[in-house]
Structure formats: C-alpha cells, structure tokens
Amino acid sequence: QSDELTRLAQFLLLFYDQMPCDILLAQWQLSMTQGKKIEYWKTHPSLFQHVGIFRSLGGFQPLQERKFGKLVFDNPAGSVFSNMEVVPTYETKFVYFSGGEPEGRNDQCDFKVSPQKQKHKRCWFWAKKPELGQHITLVFEAVTFVKAVFIEFGSDKNPQDLLEEGAIEVAGSKPGLPQAVGRGQARLDSCGEFLELMEVKQEKMVYWEEGA
User: In DSSP terms, which residues pair with 140 in a beta bridge?
Assistant: First the structure.
C-alpha cells in the first residue's frame, strides 16, 4: 500500500549493498508477512536500474535496460573480420552489433545443426576448430578510445565451448592513417601494432575496463 512506501524505501536504502533491490522485495514481503508475491515486473517496466557490469552477488550482469537511457556499452559502428572456419550461417555478423544489441532479435541461421534449443531466435559466431594465429577482429569506422570491453563465450548448455587460450588486444590506425579505410582485408590492414589488454583462458565472460 502507498502508506508503506516510506518504510520500503528505508528498507532498500539499508540493505541495497547486500543484495539487488529486486531480490530485496522478496525479503520485504517476508518481513511484512505478506502472502502474495510482488510481481510488478511481469506486467510493468522494471522498477530498478542495474548500474555497471558487476553483480553484487558476484559475476557479471551484461543485460541492459534501454528504457533508462544511455547503455553501459554503446558499441560504436564497426566491422568484424575473422580467418576462422565457421559453421555455415553462424557468421561474424553475430559477434558485434553496432549501437548495441537490437531488441526483439529474430536472427536467421541453421538452428537444426545446434543441440541448443532456441526459445528466442538468436544466432552466434560459431567457429569449428580455432587454431593458433587465428583471430576475430573488430575494426571501428572512426578512431575510438576504448573504455571497456565485455566478451561472452559458449553457453550454459555447452560449457565446454570456451577459448582454451587467447588474448584481447587493441591497436590504433597505422601511422599516416587518421582512421580505418577501405573494405575487407584492406580495412583490416589499416590497423597498426596490436597491444595486449588481457589474457583469456577458459573463461565464459571476460571484462576489461580502463583504469581497473
């Protein structure tokens, strides 16, 4: 009821650093001996905005609420290149979405070859047998100062599909080139010397942030 809002706000302010506010709602329900669950979120927009990429319960929270305004990752315009052999239809276009992941995705790929049942039509980049020296490279259309990088590998139903050993690297344009130019391999060749940001070893999610 509306006369309980002040006490609810005080409860959230008291324990927000212990667990997410949406979970605290369930604890509030128990403390008030309320039998009916608080399920506002099923029919209304979210009440709470998750700030940042880290979960208070550990791990990462990559999901983002567009209705709250600016996204954590704005994904500047760019093109993805790779020299890996891929499963047909599971191409590089599913690696990165300029402007952020679109809502209501309805991807088109051969779902019959995947053992993972699809509740939502979402495809991914699927390499057959990655080898030493192969790469996936994102080339931005304009010079971009990278502040954070977040990458996901594999899935819950295929936990073995992880990168055994690799690295995240960044590069500027070659001297004399103000930005990436050309198309295809010529665009990729416009990259300068690559510098390593971090290693990747059998991790499902990796995150790098400037200054962290």
Answer: 78
